[in-house]
C-alpha cells in the first residue's frame, strides 16, 4: 500500500506543471483515475474533476495540481534568460535551482537559476548586497554552449517559454 502511494507521488511530482502549463499533469491524473474505474474529466481552466460516487454525505476532494515556476521574459545578449516568476516565486527562493525550459516545438532544455554575475571573485561589493531581482541581477543559464542571443534563439527558446523548477523529490529510509 505505502509503496503504491510513493509510486503515485513520484509519478505526479515528476511531471512539470507550471501554472498555465499543466496539461501533461492533468492527463496523468485522468489516466490514473480511469485505471481505477472512474470517469474523470478535465476542467476548462485546467485541473481534473472526478465523481467518486457515494450516497448521503459523499466526500469531495479538490486540489490544484499546478506548481510555481518561471517564464522567459527576454533573451539577454549573452544568451542567458531574463525570467518572470509564475505563481509568486521570489528570486531568493529560486537562486541555484535546476530548471527545465520548454520550447514551443517540444524541446526541453536544462539550466540553472543564478546571479548574472555569478563569480564571487568578480562581483563588486555593492552588487553583492543588492537584493535579488529577476529583472536586474538574476537569470537562467542554459546547459548548452550558448554565448549570444542568437545561439539561444537557435535552440528554439522564445519569450513566453515556460520554465519548470526541479522538484528535488527524495525518498528517505525511515
Explained architecture:
There is one protein chain. It contains five helices and eight strands. With 174 residues, it is α+β, with helices and mostly antiparallel strands. The longest helix has 13 residues, at 23-35. The model has no long low-confidence stretch (mean pLDDT 88).
What is the gist of this entry?
The chain is α+β, with helices and mostly antiparallel strands and 174 residues long. 22% of the residues lie in helices and 22% in strands.
Tell me the number of helical segments per DSSP (H or I, 4 or more residues long): 5
Fraction of residues in helix: 10-25%
Strand order of the largest sheet: 4-3-8-5-6-7
Helix vs. strand class: alpha+beta
- Using only C-alpha atoms, the radius of gyration works out to 20 Å
Please outline the major beta sheet: 6 strands, antiparallel
Distance between the termini: 16 Å
How many β-strand runs? 8
Mean pLDDT: 88
Strand content: 15-25%
Global morphology = elongated
Helix and strand element order: HHEEEEHEEHEHE
Describe how the helices and strands are arranged:
Blueprint: H1 2-13, H2 23-35, E1 41-42, E2 48-49, E3 69-75, E4 81-86, H3 91-94, E5 98-102, E6 108-115, H4 125-128, E7 138-142, H5 149-154, E8 162-165
Antiparallel strand pairs: 1-2, 3-4, 3-8, 5-6, 5-8, 6-7
Amino acid at each position: 500500500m505505502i509503496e503504491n502511494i510513493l509510486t503515485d507521488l513520484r509519478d505526479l511530482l515528476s511531471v512539470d506543471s507550471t501554472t498555465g502549463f499543466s496539461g501533461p499533469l492533468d492527463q496523468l491524473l485522468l489516466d490514473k483515475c480511469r485505471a481505477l474505474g472512474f470517469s474523470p474529466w478535465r476542467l476548462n481552466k485546467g485541473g481534473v474533476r472526478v465523481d467518486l460516487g457515494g450516497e448521503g454525505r459523499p466526500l469531495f476532494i479538490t486540489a490544484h495540481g499546478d506548481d510555481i515556476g518561471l517564464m522567459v521574459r527576454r533573451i539577454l545578449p549573452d544568451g542567458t534568460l531574463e525570467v518572470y516568476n509564475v505563481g509568486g516565486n521570489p528570486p531568493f527562493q529560486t537562486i541555484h535551482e535546476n530548471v527545465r525550459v520548454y520550447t514551443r516545438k517540444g524541446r526541453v532544455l536544462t539550466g540553472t537559476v543564478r546571479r548574472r554575475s555569478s563569480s564571487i571573485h568578480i562581483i563588486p561589493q555593492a552588487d553583492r548586497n543588492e537584493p535579488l531581482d529577476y529583472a536586474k541581477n538574476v537569470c537562467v543559464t542554459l546547459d548548452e554552449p550558448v554565448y549570444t542571443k542568437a545561439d539561444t534563439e537557435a535552440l528554439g527558446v522564445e519569450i513566453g517559454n515556460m520554465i519548470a523548477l526541479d522538484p528535488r523529490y527524495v525518498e528517505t529510509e525511515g
